Each structure stands twice: as structure tokens, then as C-alpha cells.
Amino acid sequence: MRQIALLSNVIVAVALIFATALPGQQRQRPDRPEDRNPLRGDPKAVLAGGTLFSQSCGGCHGPTGEGGRGPNLVDGRAIRRLNDRELMTSIKKGVPGTDMPPSALPDDKLWQITAFVRGLSSPAFDGPVAGDAGAGAALFFGKAGCSNCHMVRGRGGFLGPDLANVGQLRSEALLHESIVNPNRRLVEGFQGASIVTADGGKIEGVVKNSNNYSVQALDAKGELHLLDRAPLKSVTLRADSPMPADYAKRLSREEIQNVVAYLSRQSVRNGTGAFVSPETSASPVRFEDIRRSPNDSWLTYAGDYQAQRHSPLTQINTANVKSLAPAWTYHIDTARKLEATPLVAGGVMYVTNSNEIHALDARNGRRIWTYRDDQSPVQRVNRGAALLGDRVFFVTGDAYLVALHRKSGAVLWQKKYADTKDGYSATLAPLAIKDRVLVGVGGGDSGMRGFVAALSASTGEELWRFYTVPAKGEPGSETWAQFPLQWAGAGTWLSGTYDPELNLVYWTTGNPWPDFYGGDRKGDNLYSASVVALDLGTGKLKWHFQFTPHDTHDWDAQAFPVLVDTEYQGKMRKALLHPNRNGFLYLLDRTTGEFLRSTRLVDKLTWATGIDAKGRPIEVPDMDPTAGGKRVCPSVRGAANWMSPSYNPGTGLLYVPTLEQCDIYTGSAKQPEPMQGFAGTGGEHIPTEPGQFFLRAFDPKTGQRIWEYPMTGPTTTWAGTVSTAGGLVFFGDDDGQLVAVDARTGKYLWHYYMGQALSASPITYSVNGKQYVTIAAATDVFTFSLGEGR
Asked: How far apart are CA 331 and CA 782, in angstroms?
């Protein structure tokens, strides 16, 4: 191992470790107007509340709220979880089971105390802070040396916590304390360390995590070191903060206050100042790397740009898969329904949850860093991340694209690309291609206008936007009659695929709105329930194909368009395979969009007798939803859905999770009201006709079903597949199990029961010559490998 340059004592000395500058700090949850303190922000009320606090509360909490017999109220962990009325009620009624008694003060006095207590932990960004922020910035990046270890908006070092959002996370008092008394609170994941490797090499930096078996360390250059503990000669950890304790002597009071003023203005969403790209790491994820993925790594949501989800790894194969055993499990406290497909690069796994992302040591599941956006008012599932260069990207529920340094978790930039006021949300894994990141939007079931947008991977600047519902007067707008197009739907909540040779992006679209009543939107409703082919450079539409014109059954086209080169009528074609929710498997020419063939995915299919030569469904009359209910197959879940299929070039087979089920569909002509959850109405299961999931293998050359694997379960799975060169298909079944079958025959080979519902797709990767298989369950990430000696 090469020797890492020693971190100079000067840099260590100026490491400004903010003990509570962790991005996971929870902010106050939104409250109703009637729950808001009528005196909040009133200086006189805060002053009066401070006097009352000193008289009534200071004996336990300390005169300044920093704790004594009672908890510290300045750090704000508990306070920020409460709205104003909840906080006032706690003061009024006391806390049962503790020494805090009820208060006899009248409500107006209690509101004054509430205003004061709230101010103790209110984010510094929310109020005026004395000092010269400009002078503080000069000190931060100059004389004080803070930026040697801390990064702000992409500028600075790696050894201290990222401070790009610290004004939103910390009160003024805590900012000041962190400078003058750094040892008061030590930060997890930023303990100074000196490591000597087996060959005598030295690593100086901070330990992100460690135990008896492994160490995860970050050096001053921003490089991660994922180490086994046993071979190391020594690991020396600092007991105190790397930051010197004499800043009160080094800097004047005015200078310290200026630094506090500068930090108080740091807010990723609301702050000022350009984001700066830090130096590129020694091992960036390049566009060419993603083109070659998957291999040892898994670099994009679908494994590769073609969405084939086929790994060349063979260590785990049909001969030894029965020896597959749990390697590690990572629990996510905030998770309820993980839908993420993890990514793996350089031995690091990235897995997302709603508004958060976790970086793990892919060998053992040890956390390296976590980033959580607590400013998003919207909680949505999240399906994954994207990698490019030294960045990892993910979207928040309220449609911000976030760019982080993938090794440290520092915020590089954050860009709002859609507004919740217009009905938008976001759940997808972004798609990173060349110099840009592509994103889409959800919300189509309540009214919005779908689009795909490309943003610069360096700055977040929007490069182009394609709307999946044409504007009035544009081609295709006539297919909506007089329906208001800004609420027409056609969401884009699943990532797309890409052909580098054609430079075309293929993106599927959602249903028109309202979902189950089409009386007011007469026509085909372009480009809903379609796949659109867009030029990567310009976003211009090259061609489109609509699977379900004038959809009234909520049959989004959101299933991955799988790109394969296959034989059709004796000639090789650049093809696109699409297992559609409407019950048909489509084969298109991906260069022109020409319809080539369709076959049935499922046996229970009643709404159409087939697809004609032009690709339009041959519909059975009177299959639209009715007020009294209409039995239609497939169900509203669809014959297929967003659960990932996979394609094995060796077997030449496409593997698709399919559902045999019918529903009773009801429709309503009620005037639709956008953003109110009205879908006009929906599909209901038929108790006497339980559905069943199957994993099915299809031959793309003929469209014929080759084999199927029936599943047991309650028809609630949303899990997909991954194919391997070891002759295996791994998939999540309907009973909460990860299953392996023979890719050629569908023969059962192995399973593991996780005891949780599955809503994600498995991946496989290799670190240090060892192959792993991973799938996210409801609250945990499960990873498997062969036992020792296998």
C-alpha cells in the first residue's frame, strides 16, 4: 500500500469540528396556524420569556438553558421535533415521569417562555445575527484556517463536518460554542486518527467508523480507506477534538462573531454564493465506466444504460448458490418501505430512503456517512441514486436534485427543478449520462404536467426540459380535447435508458389524469402511457410510441424499456423490449420507434384481443370503468409494473415479474380537482379471484414464454430481478424472500426469508474478489455471500 502523506499539524490544529453539525438533525415539523406561538419572534416577548425562564426554569435547565439537573435546551434535538403548541403544552403540563412539574403561569406568560426557549435552539439562519458575514468568510477561508478541514458549498477540506447547511441546523449559541469550546461536544465520524498499515504505510485523517474487525477512514485528500482491522499495525485515535481550544485567544471577540455571522448564513436551499466544484478524486466514476457497468461495481439504477441488469460475475453460480449465506444487514431507522436499488463504486454502497442517502462499506455494511435533507416538507419513497465523477446524486420528495461529494457526503449543490405547488413530487433514481443528470417527476395521479429535465452535473443548471403533455397548439395537444393541459398527468417517475450510439434517451410516461375517467379528455392523450425517445443533447423528441391510448385503467408505461440487439424476421435489429402494465410484451425498433411485435405477458387479459399491425390495441367494447364497477383484466397493479426485469445475453431470455389478477374498476364523472388525491376513482380486488405473481422468461426473438416460476403470497410484492453469468436469476418473491433460480430452466435453487415485504430489486457486485448479492427490504438492506471456503 502506498504511504499517505502525513496530515500537517497545522491543518489538524485548525480543524473546526462542529459537534452538532450533522446533516441528520431534525427540524421542527410543520404546524397549523392555530398551533403557532402568537408571540414568536417578538423581541419584547422573548426578553420577558427569558426573565420568566430564569425565575421558573433556570434552576434545573441552567440560566441560559444549557442544562443542569434538566436537559440542555440549546442543542435543540428534542425542541425542534415539537411545534409551538406542543412545546408550550410541555411547559404547562410538565413531563410525567420526570422532575419537570406543571406550571401555574397563565397562557400568555407560557407563550413568552415558549418564545424564549424556541429562540435558544432556533436555526441561526432564521434570525438576525450580529457581525460582518463578509469579514467572517475572509477569516474562514483565510486567517482562521477553517476551510483546511471544513467544506462550505463545495469549497474547503474533508476532515471536518460539511458546513454548507449549518445555519439551518444550528443556533447562534451552538455556532459560537463550537468555536470557543470544541471539546464540549465531539462529532461521531470525525475522530482524528493515525493508522499504520501492515506494510508500514501511514494514513492520517478521521475515522468515519470502526470496530474490532474493520476501519473506515477518510484522509485530507478526500480519499476513503476501507480496511480490515486485523492486519493493521496500529490505529491511534484522538480523545479530544482536532480543533485547538484556544480560538478565544487567537481571534478577537469581534472576529469570532464575524465567523459566527458567516456560518449563520449557510443554507443549502436559501443561502447565497456560488457552489464550487472541489478537486476531482483519484478514482472518479466516468461515463465510460458506467457504459461498462455492471462488473465488480453497480454504477447506475438499472445496472447499465440498456437496463439489462445482467452481471458478468460468476463466483456465485448454479453449482454453489445453495451455500449462499447472510454476510451483513444494515438497518435504516427512518425506513418503512425501502424501494431503492443500491449502487456500488470503489467498495462503497449508496442506498437511499426518503430525503436521505447512506454510504456504506460494501464489504460489511458499516456506515461511512449519512446525509438527510430535513427541509423537505414532502416525504416520498425514493428509488435510488446516480453516480458521476466524484458526485452522488439523489432527489428529495419535493423535487430538489442534490449533488454530494460521494466519499465525504459534503453538499456540492442542490437544485429545485419542480414545485410542489404545481402538484409535483419526486421519487426516481436520477440518470447520469456524460455531463448531465436526467430527472423526472411524480404526482400524475392527482394532476400535474409531466416532464423530463436534464441538469448540468457540475452546477445543476437546467440544460433542457421536455414536457410529456404538449402545450396548447403544439403537435399532440389536439389529443386532449379541451382538458386543461397543466393538470393532464403523464408523470415521469421512473428512470430511463440510453443508447450511446444513437445518443437517444428512452423514457416511459405515466397515465393521464384523472386516472379512471376519460370523458373530459377525449382523444389518445399524448404522450401519456408511452415511451418517448429524446435526443440527449437537446431534449428534442425523435419518436414516440403509445402503448395504451386514452388509458382509463391507470396503466402507466412505467416499466423499464430494455434495449437489446436481437434477430427479427431474419435480420438483426436494434430493439426495445417493454413489458407493459396493460398485459402485452412489446418489441419496437429503438432507432425509429417502429412497432415490430407484441405478445401476451399474462393469461388473464380481457380489455383487448390483441395489438394491430400499427401497434394500437384491438379493444373489447365497454371495458371502461363504470359507476357500478366493471371487471377487467389485468388489475390496476398491471400485468407488469416498475419492478425491474432483466435480460441475459447468454440465454437470450428476458425475465419479467408478472401478475395474473383482475379488478373491479369504477369511474366517476365528478369534476376533477387537482392535487386533492382524486383519481376518478379506482380498481378494487375481487375477493373470490385472488391474484398470483409469476417470474416468467420470454424469448425476445419470438415473444414466446419459455418458463415460469409461480410464487405464493398476498400479491403485494414490488420486487424485481437481476441476472448473472453464473447461470442465475435472483428476484424478490411475493412472500418476502430473495430467491435464486436457474436462468435457463427456472428451476428453484435457493431462497432466504427476510420477514419483510419487498419493494426493491436485487443487485450483485464484487469487492476484493468476493461476490455479494444485495436487496433492500422494508427497513433493512440484506447482503449475502458464499461461506468461507466455498
From this structure: 9
How does pLDDT run across 585-598, given as a tens digit for each residue?
A: 999 999 999 999 99
- Which residue blocks in 133-213 are alpha helix, DSSP H? 133-140, 166-169, 172-180
| 163 to 78, 358, 395, 627: CA distances (angstroms) | 22, 18, 20, 56
Pair (421, 313) in one structural domain:
yes
How many domains are contained in the chain? 3
Asked if residue 281 belongs to a domain, the reply is: no
Question: For residues 360 and 368, what is the distance between their CA atoms, to the nearest angstrom?
Answer: 5
Whether residues 14 and 37 share a domain: the answer is no
DSSP string, 399-438: SEEEEEETTT--EEEEEE-S-GGGT-B--PPPEEETTEEE
Directed axis angle between helix 43-56 and helix 107-121, to 10°? Answer: 100
Per the CB < 8 A criterion, the answer to whether 659 and 618 are in contact is no
Q: Are residues 139 and 74 in the same domain?
A: no
Active site residue 556: yes
pLDDT tens per residue, range 50-85: 899 988 898 888 877 877 888 888 766 667 778 889
Instruction: Single out the catalytic residue among 445, 499, 551, 556.
Output: 556
Q: Is 115 exposed, middle or buried (0-12, 13-18, 19+ CB in 10 A)?
A: buried
Residue-number span of the structural domain to which 208 is assigned: 9-24+129-264
- Residues in the chain, total: 790
Looking up residue 203, the CATH number of its domain turns out to be: 2.30.30.100
Report the distance separating Cα 742 and Cα 5, nearest Å. 50
What is the DSSP secondary structure assignment for residue 131, as one 8-state letter?
A: S
pTM of the predicted protein model: 0.90
